[in-house]
Design a protein that fits this description.
Blueprint (H helix, E strand, L loop, with lengths): L11 E5 L3 H13 L3 E6 L2 H8 L6 E5 L8 H9 L4 E6 L4 H10 L3 E4 L4 H12 L7 H8 L11 H11 L4 H8 L3 H17 L7 H10 L16
Parallel strand pairs: 1-2, 1-3, 3-4, 4-5
Helix pairs in contact: 3-4, 4-6, 7-8, 7-9, 7-10, 8-9
Length: 228
């Protein structure tokens, strides 16, 4: 579902995978799709060197790098460049996928996926959106101890509307509260997520938390609002 405005075609992509064949395949597919591949490396330090302090729209990152690095440090190092992270992983590495999502990755696409699915995922992440798919749902669902912030009803209402895309001023109007009150609720939501080790500094992060905790639908067919 490409946009006609050319945004997807202008996206810049980097690839981090310690298997050369995977890098070559992804590079060819990305170029065929109109993306500019700015770097392809075997590990994150090499990527940082290749970027030279700059960023790209999306870094397609393998979780199973052979240099002894951790998932969290790799994801955060890439995010520090200003680039978004799309995890490219073997589907059964649920714990590592969950760690990557917690560190701030925008989504995960299995290595067994058709290349068209990978390209579509890159397009989604390049537009600044979170990739909602079954792999993300499985990673969250597999961790029965995944810490949920204990949000009050009004805090959940504010989060639901704000993470759905409404500006905070319209959230306040819809709930019949002052803009300052809505801001206070949102600040408390962020504080509670920090308390459980799941910070959400941006609106995209809040969307991720809302979906993870069932406040918004998007990961399964059961609907996320059952626990209002």
């Amino acid at each position: 579902m490409s946009e006609a405005d050319g945004t997807d075609a202008a996206a810049t992509v980097a690839i981090v995978d310690d298997h050369e064949a995977v890098r070559l395949g992804l590079r060819a597919a990305c170029r065929d799709a109109g993306y500019e591949v700015v770097a392809e490396t075997a590990n994150v330090p090499e990527l940082l060197g290749a970027l030279g302090g700059s960023s790209c729209d999306v870094v397609v990152l393998d979780l199973s790098l052979g240099d002894g690095s951790s998932v969290t440090e790799n994801v955060r190092a890439v995010l520090d460049t200003g680039s978004a992270v799309l995890v490219h992983s073997i589907a059964d590495r649920v714990a590592a996928v969950r760690e990557a999502l917690a560190a701030g990755a925008a989504g995960v696409v299995p290595k067994a996926s058709p290349m068209s699915t990978v390209i579509a995922a890159i397009a989604t992440v390049a537009k600044g959106e979170v990739l909602n798919n079954v792999e993300w749902a499985s990673a969250i669902e597999a961790d029965r101890e995944f810490a949920k912030a204990q949000l009050g009803r009004r805090e959940r209402d504010v989060l639901h509307l704000y993470a759905s895309g409404l500006p905070l001023k319209l959230v306040a109007m819809q709930l019949g509260i002052a803009h300052s009150t809505a801001r206070e609720y949102l600040d408390r939501v962020r504080a509670k997520y920090i308390e459980v080790g799941r910070p959400a500094p941006t609106k995209v992060d809040l969307l991720r938390r809302a979906v993870e905790d069932g406040i918004l639908p998007g990961l399964d067919g059961e609907g996320g609002d059952a626990r209002r």
